[in-house]
Amino acid sequence: MPFNQPLCHLLSCKGLTILLALLSLLACETPKTEPYQDVSFYSDAFATERNYRIYLPGDYAEQPDKQYPVVYYFHGYGGRYKWDAYDLEDDVHYPENGRLEPPFVMEWKKYAQENNLIIVTWDGYEPNLSPGKKEREGIPYGNALPYDYVRAHETEREHWGWDFSAHFRELVKHVDQNFRSIPDRSKRAITGLSMGGLTSYYVAGQNKDLVASVSAFDPAANLPYYGPKGRQVVFPVLEMHRSLKGLAVRLTKTDGDWLKYNNWHMTQLFGSADLSHFETHTADYPNHWTADTEQQLDFHRNEFAKTPALPAKWNHVNPGFDNFEVFGNTFKIKREIPALTLIENASANKLKILSRTFIPDGPIVLEETIAGSTAGSYAPEETYLLRSFNLSTHAFEADNLVSADKEGKLDFALSGGGHWLGINREAEPKAQLGMVFPNNQEHFYFEEGKTESLSFSLVNIGNAPAQEIEIIPVTQHPHLKISPEKITISALEAKAAIDSEQAFQFTFGRYSDSSFVAGVDFVIRADRQVADTLRIMAFAAPKAVYSPRGDLILLDGRTVPEVPIYQQGMDSIVFETLSGGEGNGNGIWEVGEEVLFYLRLPQGLAPKDTNTFHHTYLLNHPAQPYTSVNSMHYLERLNQASCTSETTPITLSPDSPKNQELDLCLRAESLYNDKNDSTSNATIYANQFHFRRVKVGSFKFWI
């Protein structure tokens, strides 16, 4: 083309397209002189520009044909995509922590350059376009916490409903399109600190098709809301293991973390949960931080070398969203009330699906419809029998014969109430067995030294009978004994259910704070082969003494003044006015009333916490006769990093006999801000559970 051609010719549509592509590459690709690049792109999920920083390997410029795995890092409160900080002390007061480029650049640059991987630090601040309260390095903060992070007790704070899980998918797509990342889930990972650590577990669990491993440093001890604006539900961090089956999971906790008690609980719960792989590491560091960063990143590099296949079985929790997808399986749900959708033991042959208003053990949603479409893993145009057992009605619903489409996908529809759904190939009849526990209970508490029964029903959602059935309990917990060693059922016809004539007997020989939960696998054998394995979590409770009636406050819509309450921030006892519950306020628990119980403890966790009252949680509430727990109340742990406690409002059922005395097992929580922990220069936010039995009935609560 002659040099004297008009400029407008050079900027023809084709030329302009090429020019824009070149400019895009220049904007995204990192110059050889810089080991990282700050990148922005337009987010459809947030309808605004979003930022991230990308750290590139040392040979990135010299190896133009080479692709690399990616670790995505989620910062904590106070951080942005350029830094991560809580206080200057993280770099100034502790030079031995090895930070190379204060303030707050972390070790990402060095690790990425030396280990042949890409590290992306994303921006977790909410995309509220209102003027921010402050800024740093010219980057404005928004008017909400990172990740649109509203905690369960924060009823006055506005939740914008931003979907950071959807934004992560956009981020991965942008990185894959503009940098030489390996576009495969087995070569992607997420890690994060504090709020970012909790969000790492959440986002990874919602996007199991994009990542194969996830880790967290000192994750926040919160119960955050998720879901679209106006329909959010609480998804507690300690329950997030439910979505992580099929991923490699790691927890790094510092021994001086102010949230170390939460770390201990998480270690026990995640270690006992139905996870494919879980490991934990304790770092020697006197505060809340990303300590032993290299070891965490080494964990992900080791996972990158494994190239795992998609999991054959998976679990999932979707909080509040009406439409979602898991491994190519799509779900569209219609219901009036916000709820969490739980999918358990999902495979190509069956799945368990139900919705609850809260977890664990919230009421199952009865009024909803579920429209599902499976991944394309079935024989195209072949007929399958879909067989469903309703968990609430305990009855089979009408069978459906469905033909897979040309892509091998099956469409199905379910009503509310929860279901075991069997997907049966007509050409290959097979039994499909599932266990159902009384009241569809999830968390089972067993008192130390006391043998207690766990009964079950067995359902066959397959299209062939099962013979020589054995249910075998297996646990690695050192103090839990289960008998008998197996329960045998001679046969179960297709589309049939049976209540087992025997029950398993659980005995926790000893209670310990360090081993309060046990994972129990029920191995289901039929026709002399393993048909399935189902895991439950069994919780130990110490021997509970009975509290006298005078140690209990019942709130049934009434107000009680001058109640001694320990305030851990002040380390002193104050006298407060308590109110709550729904009823006539006469202090007598009557049919239909929803009440709150406060329990007096002679001694709480803090040395100064004596003879004070504490809110309570009803253990095994799905199995408690004549009562129901229809909602959860969330209370802030004042002066403890906005952590949240749970308390159960208890409703007396209409079928409760008059003058019936109920035996309730309550869990109370005491708190303590420990400033003298030898492993930390921070104040440790400690909590302790206390277990008491109470006998309540239609008598006056005089306190």
Automatic annotation (TrEMBL):
<dbReference type="Pfam" id="PF00756">
    <property type="entry name" value="Esterase"/>
</dbReference>
<dbReference type="InterPro" id="IPR029058">
    <property type="entry name" value="AB_hydrolase_fold"/>
</dbReference>
<keyword id="KW-0732">Signal</keyword>
<protein>
    <submittedName>
        <fullName>Esterase</fullName>
    </submittedName>
</protein>
<dbReference type="InterPro" id="IPR050583">
    <property type="entry name" value="Mycobacterial_A85_antigen"/>
</dbReference>
<dbReference type="GO" id="GO:0016747">
    <property type="term" value="F:acyltransferase activity, transferring groups other than amino-acyl groups"/>
</dbReference>
<dbReference type="InterPro" id="IPR000801">
    <property type="entry name" value="Esterase-like"/>
</dbReference>
<feature type="signal peptide">
    <location>
        <begin position="1"/>
        <end position="27"/>
    </location>
</feature>
